[in-house]
């Protein structure tokens, strides 16, 4: 690149000087430590950022500063609120790109919804149980050196629906679907007719609910016995309120393309969804199609491994309580140069962080409260996203108390059966190493959007209800054994519901954030799709978008300094 000067001007109000860095020379300042040029890049050691060097032009430090008098303050280039799957993924990707990132998590442990527990020889999950190993997840698993800890449940384990006092195996192929005992002959015929195109059109072209879409295409029976329980096992939701377009965009898109017969390939919308998610990108790791993944010690290994890699850059027990614009520039003028974030921290003291960009991965209702001063209308919309209450109940029973040897993923229960539990994952069948010899572990879920009264139940009442439902379905009638209660978790606001109007709402929110809050990015399962894999992919995309924003922002700021000079 030859010799020459690079002018480095720090935008922070506390730094008054513009620094000149000569090629191959080193320069120190008390705020940023050493900086130097190598090749085409300017490196600034303390800020751990580098700025693409432009010959004879100015570069800008993307970090703000701490001074020795302000011990409760700090700085970073990107602040991430929340250490769930989305936040952890974005943080790792940004750190890997050399960007100075700070993750603030209000809980004492990282992971958000992902909570894995280990006691008395059992390992169990209180949030998500498994993920579909998408290419993005596998990429992250490799990067985090988690490959040796990846565990896969047998792809062939059947899923069941409990209906008419019997467990019915859900077919895994169109052939199996012909002998499918869950649907009557009439129900199958109706579904078949819908599949070959004899379905009424959506003439009004209004946004349809899942219930409307499914009954129109496949009939009432498929809806009641198959899709309603499936919705319980993904959204804990109410299909009469969820938007087909938002909750299952791939399936809806098929209709728009006129591929109606694919809708019931195997009579299962869910299967269709997962097939569309087949691996496109190449990763070194190969996993059998249809298998479901986790990690040896549970899903929480994922955020924990990000935390161990980012070390001090992940702050637990830090709750964001206020965000302000940091608008004073070094020359005394006002402009948006980033944000000031105030946190409550474990020792009750407040901490302040100055940052260029903020990624919010907190749930919609929390993000709403933090952004309300800037975007009141969008915050109202964020607040409208409904999260029902769900309990997860992990119980262990002796293997001998079961009616048959457990082999399957688990069972789901249609709401029309009047059994209160939504469904049960047969955890010890998925991962047998997670239980002591002679025991079975069951993870059940109860509550959701169709059972709002659950909020008034105590943990003891919930355990009693779940135990009684399990007895009706899986245990021998004379089994007097009381279960080992491993864990009961009340998810007061469990899962965002993609109700009718969701996509429109999201679009409006995004627009208002982009206009009013440059450098603020929204993430989280109310935007990305709710699966673990959706959150990983969205976290990766967020990291790319934020890197681009920082680069563009630096260039814009450099230009404004040049023109003032
Ligand atoms: C019971 C249950 C079962 C599920 N089962 C499955 C499954 O089997 N498979 C699957 O793929 N998906 C499943 N999911 C969905 C999936 O787990 C979630 O969608 C995903 O984990 C959400 O990740 P996230 O990072 O977007 O949000 P979250 O996990 O909600 O993370 C947000 C984080 O922000 C933090 N935070 C909030 N406010 C603040 C603040 N003011 N300051 C600092 N931090 C803050 C929170 O503490 C939290 O850690 C399940 C979800 C639930 C609840
Ligand atoms: C068979 C029993 C199941 C129960 C009970 C259950 C509860 C439950 N699940 C979620 C949220 C999600 N589950 C997801 C995947 C998933 N869930 C089950 C089964 C049960 N879930 C299976 C077999 C799978 C794997 C995917 C599949 O092959 O169908 C997902 C991810 C969905 C995706 O798009 O990948 C979510 C999200 C909740 C909230 C819940 C509690 C009621």
UniProtKB/TrEMBL annotation:
- What GO MF terms are annotated? oxygen-dependent protoporphyrinogen oxidase activity
Keyword list, A-Z: Chloroplast, FAD, Flavoprotein, Heme biosynthesis, Oxidoreductase, Plastid, Porphyrin biosynthesis, Transit peptide
InterPro entries given in the database record: Amino_oxidase, FAD/NAD-bd_sf, Protoporphyrinogen_oxidase, Zeta_carotene_desat/Oxidored
Single GO cellular component term: chloroplast
- Would the keyword Cell membrane be found if you checked this record's keyword annotation? no
**UniProt catalytic activity:** protoporphyrinogen IX + 3 O2 = protoporphyrin IX + 3 H2O2
The record's comment on protein family reads:
Belongs to the protoporphyrinogen/coproporphyrinogen oxidase family. Protoporphyrinogen oxidase subfamily.
Task: Write down what this protein is called.
Answer: Protoporphyrinogen oxidase
Taxonomic source organism:
Galdieria yellowstonensis
């Amino acid at each position: 690149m030859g010799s020459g000067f690079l002018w480095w001007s720090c935008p922070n109000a506390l730094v008054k000087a513009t620094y000149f860095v000569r090629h191959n020379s080193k320069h120190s300042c008390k705020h940023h430590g050493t900086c130097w040029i190598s090749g085409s890049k300017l490196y600034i050691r303390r800020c751990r950022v580098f700025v693409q060097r432009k010959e004879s032009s100015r570069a800008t430090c993307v970090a703000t500063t701490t001074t020795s008098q302000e011990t409760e303050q700090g700085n970073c280039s990107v602040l991430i609120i929340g250490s769930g799957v989305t936040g952890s993924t974005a943080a790792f990707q940004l750190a890997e790109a050399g960007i100075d990132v700070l993750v603030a998590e209000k809980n004492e442990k990282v992971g958000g919804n992902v909570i894995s527990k280990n006691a008395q020889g059992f390992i169990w999950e209180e949030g998500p149980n498994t993920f579909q190993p998408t290419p993005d997840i596998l990429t992250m698993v490799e990067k985090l050196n988690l490959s040796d800890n990846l565990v896969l449940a047998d792809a062939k384990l059947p899923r069941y629906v409990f209906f008419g006092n019997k467990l019915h195996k859900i077919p895994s192929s169109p052939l199996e679907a012909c002998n499918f005992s869950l649907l009557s002959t009439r129900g199958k015929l109706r579904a078949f007719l819908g599949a070959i195109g004899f379905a009424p059109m959506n003439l009004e072209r209004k946004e349809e609910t899942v219930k409307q879409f499914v009954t129109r295409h496949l009939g009432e029976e498929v809806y009641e016995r198959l899709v309603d329980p499936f919705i319980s096992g993904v959204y804990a939701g109410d299909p009469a309120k969820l938007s087909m377009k938002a909750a299952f965009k791939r399936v809806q898109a098929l209709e728009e393309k006129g591929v109606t017969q694919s809708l019931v390939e195997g009579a299962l919308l869910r299967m269709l969804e997962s097939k569309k998610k087949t691996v496109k990108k190449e990763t070194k790791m190969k996993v059998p199609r249809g298998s479901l993944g986790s990690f040896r010690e549970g899903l929480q290994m994922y955020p924990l491994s990000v935390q161990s890699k980012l070390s001090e850059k992940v702050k637990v027990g830090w709750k964001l309580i206020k965000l302000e614009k940091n608008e004073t520039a070094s020359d005394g003028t006002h402009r948006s140069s980033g944000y000031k974030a105030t946190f409550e921290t474990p020792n009750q003291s407040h901490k302040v962080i100055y940052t260029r960009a903020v990624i919010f991965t907190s749930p919609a209702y929390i993000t709403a409260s933090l952004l309300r001063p800037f975007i009141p209308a969008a915050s109202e919309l964020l607040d409208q996203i409904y999260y029902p209450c769900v309990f997860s109940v992990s119980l262990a029973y002796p293997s001998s108390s079961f009616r048959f040897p457990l082999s399957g993923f688990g069972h789901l229960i249609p709401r029309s059966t009047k059994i209160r539990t939504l469904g049960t994952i047969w955890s010890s069948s998925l991962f047998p190493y997670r239980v002591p010899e002679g025991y079975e572990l069951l993870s059940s879920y109860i509550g959701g959007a169709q059972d709002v009264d659950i909020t008034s139940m105590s943990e003891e009442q919930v355990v009693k209800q779940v135990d009684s439902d399990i007895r009706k379905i899986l245990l021998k009638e004379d089994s007097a054994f009381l279960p080992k209660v491993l864990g009961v978790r009340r998810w007061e606001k469990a899962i965002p519901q993609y109700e009718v109007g969701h996509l429109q709402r999201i679009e409006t929110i995004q627009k208002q954030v982009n206009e009013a809050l440059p450098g603020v990015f929204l993430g989280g399962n109310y935007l990305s799709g709710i699966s673990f894999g959706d959150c990983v992919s969205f976290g990766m995309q967020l990291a790319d978008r934020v890197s681009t924003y920082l680069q563009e922002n630096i260039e814009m700021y450099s230009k404004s300094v040049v023109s003032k000079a």
